[in-house]
């Protein structure tokens, strides 16, 4: 079975804004910190949803092997999981590209 990303998902948390070294400790103000927190929450929810979709596809596949689900249900679940995985890979690629662009900026 697919295990959760409990070790990775907490790393998506952006930290707090009270100046203890979190990501937004030197932000321009509370608006920037709130935007960062909501973005982190959105990424966390998206990762959780993708994991849930993959687990659902796996469960339906196991049910089909046991004779409890038909092929159409398996195909629907696997196609949905594939779409979620492709979206996650696309988001990861965009994040890596953005990071590389920022790292090349002159200071």
Structure description:
Helix 1 (30-65) packs antiparallel against helix 2 (71-104). The chain is elongated. Residues 5-27 have low confidence and may be disordered. The chain has two helices and no strands. The chain has 107 residues and is mostly helical. Helices cover 65% and strands 0% of the residues. It has one domain (9-104). It has helices at residues 30-65, 71-104. The longest helix has 36 residues, at 30-65.
Uncertain stretches = 5-27
SSE pattern, N- to C-terminal: HH
Strand residue content: under 5%
**What form results from the Cα inertia axes?**
elongated
Helix count?
A: 2
**Average pLDDT rating:** 79
Describe the largest sheet: none
Number of domains: 1
Helix fraction, binned, reads 55-70%
How far is the N terminus from the C terminus? Answer: 47 Å
Structural class: mainly alpha
GO biological process, one term: bacterial-type flagellum-dependent cell motility
Keywords: Bacterial flagellum, Cell projection, Cilium, Flagellum
Protein name: Flagellar hook-basal body complex protein FliE
Organism: Mesorhizobium alhagi CCNWXJ12-2
Provide the fold topology.
Elements: H1 30-65, H2 71-104
Helix pairs in contact: 1-2
């Amino acid at each position: 079975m697919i295990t959760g990303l409990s070790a990775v998902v907490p790393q998506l948390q952006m930290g707090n804004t009270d100046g203890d070294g979190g990501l937004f400790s030197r932000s321009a103000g509370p608006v920037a910190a709130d935007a960062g927190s909501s973005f982190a929450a959105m990424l966390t929810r998206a990762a959780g949803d993708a994991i849930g979709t993959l687990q659902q596809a796996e469960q339906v596949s196991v049910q089909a092997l046991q004779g409890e689900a038909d092929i159409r249900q398996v195909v629907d679940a696997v196609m949905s999981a594939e779409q979620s995985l492709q979206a996650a890979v696309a988001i990861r690629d965009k994040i890596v590209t953005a990071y590389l662009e920022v790292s090349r900026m002159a200071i």
